[in-house]
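Throughout our pipeline, every protein is held as a single compact record rather than as scattered files. Nothing more is needed to write down the fold, since each code stands for a local backbone conformation. The record that follows is passed on verbatim for readers who wish to inspect the format.
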Amino acid sequence: MTAERAGLHAAARQQLGALVAQFTAAVGALGLFRYQLCFPVFYTGANALAPFLETRGILISSFAYPTPADACITRVVLNALHTRADMTQVAAACQAFAAAR
């Protein structure tokens, strides 16, 4: 791996870590998600979150697994291309969902 590529990977990891910390701080107390610290996947058993967020223009991962007959697995998955503004928007929508439950 070139030094330039290694630098890009390090910057992306740092960005992702900051986004995970921001999202965790915003939604951690809601009791809505199960997650591991520093890992960019936030699972919820509240499958109604996906259509709720979709009405606000936010798409998250929600699909039946391992077969179409099984229950949905609903997750918010973050990546380094998301922005702090994205995290603020998704967190606010998750807070609205939790408040409406």
